[in-house]
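QUALITY CONTROL LOG
STEP: pairwise intake check
CHECKER ROLE: data steward
CRITERIA: each record must contain a sequence immediately followed by its C-alpha cells, with no blank fields

ENTRY 1 OF 2
RESULT FIELD BELOW
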Amino acid sequence: MEPSTRAVFDLGRVRDAVAPVLASHGVTLVDLEWITERAGWTLRFTIERENADDAGGGVTLEDCADVSRDVSSLLDVEDLIPNHYNLEVSSPGLDRRLRTAAEFARFLGRTAKVKLARPAPDGQRLLRGELLEAPEGQVAVLVDGKRIAVPFADVAEARLVFELTAQPKKGQRQGKEPAKESGQKKQLAEAAPRSGSKRSERGSEKRK
C-alpha cells in the first residue's frame, strides 16, 4: 500500500496520551514520528531509559516489546489516529540523532557527524569530529585538530558516530607490538553491535 495523502491528526495528543504508559515503564520519549513507508503509515516511538548514560538509551528488546504492547492497547482505546498504521518502538541506536542543544551538551567529547544547511566559516558542510563546549546557540566540533563553531540553527542533521576500539589480545604484554599475522585480519577482542543497529518491536497493523 502506498498512501497518496498524509493523514491529519495531532501528534501532540498522542504524545500526551502515552506519557503515563512510558512513565510506568521507566522510559522517556526521545522522538515521535509519523512516516510513510512501502508497507504504509508507521507511527515510530524512540525511547530511552530515564537517566541512561549510554548513547543507546539503556533499553532492551524486551523493554521495546512491553512498551509497544501497552501503547498499542492505549491507542486502540483512545482512537486518536484516523487510519490503519504500523507501530514501531525502538531505542535511539548507537548512532543516535542529536536534535536539541541539550543532546549536544549531553554527549560532549563524543564523535559526531554534523551536516550543515549552509557552509561553516571554512567552507565545510559536513563536520566530523569531537563535540566541544560552545556558547549558547552554537555547536562546536573539533575537526582534524581545528575547532569549528557554527550556529545551532545551521545544523540540518547530526548523529553520533559509533566507533569500535580494538582491545589487546589476551596474554599480550603491554609495550610490545603483537606478532604479525600473515594472510589474516586482526580480530577485535569483543563483539559489539553494528553501527546504526536499533532494537525495535513492530506492532500489528491497525485497521479501521
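ENTRY 2 OF 2
RESULT FIELD BELOW
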Amino acid sequence: MFQRSIIFSCLLIMAGCASQPAGEFIPYYQVETTKPYDDVLAELESAIAENNFRITGHSRIGKVIRDRGTKDFPDYDTIQFCNLTHAKTLLLMSPHSVRHMPCNVVMYNYQGKTIVSTHLLPTDTENPELNEFSVKMNALLKQIVDFAVEQ
C-alpha cells in the first residue's frame, strides 16, 4: 500500500511538472533548402534589414570552433535581431514578454541541406491584444525566414 501511495504521488508531481501555463509553449518555424549556406545567410541578413530590424548579435559558432582547431566542423550560426518600435509595443502589453526578445534565427547544415529555424511568439496567452500582436509578428518572422531560403 505504501508503494502505491509513493507511485501515485510521483505521478501527480510529474503531471504537474508537465503542464505549462497558457502562453508558455514556444513554437518554432523551421524550413530547409539546398541553397548554399552563405547565400542563405546573406539573404537572411538582407531580409532582417529590409523589415526594419537591426541585427543585435551574430554568433558564428561553427566558424569559431573551426578557427580553434576542429577543421571540418560544420557551419552553425545564430542571429539575434530587434525592432525597438515592436519591442516597445510588446513590452507595454506584457513586461513578461521580454523573455521572447530579441528575435532569434538559427542556421546550420544537416545532411546536405541548410536548416533555418526561428522561435515564434506564443499566441495563446490570456491577453487577446498580445495574441493579436504575436500573430502579426509570427507572420513577419516566417516571411523573413522564407525569403532567405527561396531558390
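INTAKE CHECK: passed for both entries
DESCRIPTIVE NOTE, ENTRY 2: DSSP finds five helices and five strands in the chain.
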